[in-house]
Amino acid sequence: MFRAKAARGLFLGLLAGVAGCGIRATDVPVDGGPAPTRASCEAPSAAEGTEQTDVFLVCGSKVNPVHRAIEYPAPVSGEDGRAGAVSERVAVAEALLDELEATPRREERAAGFSSAVPEDLGVSGPIPGDPAGVLRLSERPSDLPAFALGQIICTFANSSRLGDGGQTVVLGGPPGEPRGQPRTYSCSTAMRTSPDSGQPPGVGQKP
């Protein structure tokens, strides 16, 4: 009899302790959900294609290169000299911009990649008075989301057809925009690792 009362008292004491800790006793198993996962940010291999190009996508707080096989448009026949070179540069820029505007591929999404580049963004060549290498966007670069601008800068700068070996590219806004004058933008380490840090992405000079 004494032993049964003692056991009952011990059980009630344990229940009181649990209630005192703010834990409600329950007979139903609690599902805490799946454990949090981290994006690998490892770019999948590119498919077979005519030319391998690095396209920069967002992963975590960075913009990282993803290898893409891109078939660029053929140069327009009948053009030569500066006009032909400008036409080819614009065609390359349009092809790269199309890659940035598209939804990342399934394997890329699984690795944590996304894109912040607006789907309706356009690109054109220089206007009279611009240097030959200028690429003008349909929006002022400063008005674009920080990650989108970082993607464009690094993708264009790293293109052997557009940039200067992976460092800089000259971008401007729509023709006629007072604040859309061409500037040189750098795909620096800071741009790749923290494009939204608030630091100006340009190198502070006009071409």
Automatic annotation (TrEMBL):
Stretches the record annotates as Disordered: 104-125, 164-207
N-terminal signal peptide: 1-21
Organism of provenance: Streptomyces hoynatensis
Keywords: Signal
Stored PROSITE patterns: PROKAR_LIPOPROTEIN
UniProt key word Transferase: no
Superkingdom, taxonomy of origin: Bacteria
Composition bias type Polar residues, residue spans: 184-197
Record flagged with keyword Signal: yes
Protein's name in the database: Lipoprotein
